[in-house]
Amino acid sequence: MPTTDTSASRGNGGIDKTIEHASNSLHHTIDKLSEAARPAAEKVASTAHSALDKISHVASDASDRLGSTAEHLNELQERAMENMRGTVRARPLVALGVAVAFGFVLSRFLNGR
Q1: Which of 2, 45, 70, 73 lies 20 to 30 angstroms, CA to CA, from 16?
Q2: Is the pLDDT of residue 34 over 90?
């Protein structure tokens, strides 16, 4: 019958125990570091969430203001067009004279470059 070398198997068992002990020790160290870093990570996350909420709020307000301003400008444009239509209907010859004069001045300006 073949004999087994018990010293070799004990040696491997010793190495295995050393590796297992080192692994457990490293896992424990990593867990401790993770626990120590958790409050800082949570604070960073909380601050980032707060900043994002503020940015979102500011962007939403800006969007609302831009929408309101665009509506107001559209209303002003519509009123101006209605006023111009009324003026052209009331005084068509004056409107034609103003258009010709404006075209003449504009052509002089553009050709004078």
Answers
A1: 2
A2: no
Question: Does the pTM exceed 0.85?
Answer: no
Cβ 87 vs Cβ 95: under 8 Å: yes
Q: Measured between alpha carbons, how far is 33 from 36 in angstroms, rounded to an integer?
A: 5
Phi, psi of 5 (to 5 degrees): -85, 105
Amino acid at the residue 84? M
**Helix/strand/coil (H, E, C) string of the chain?**
CCCCCHHHHHHHHHHHHHHHHHHHHHHHHHHHHHHHHHHHHHHHHHHHHHHHHHHHHHHHHHHHHHHHHHHHHHHHHHHHHHHHHHHHHHCHHHHHHHHHHHHHHHHHHHHCC
What pLDDT band is residue 77 in, cutting at 50, 70 and 90?
very high
The mean pLDDT of 81-105, rounded to a whole number, is: 93
> Which residues, including other chains, have CB under 8 Å from residue 88's CB and lie 6 or more apart?
95
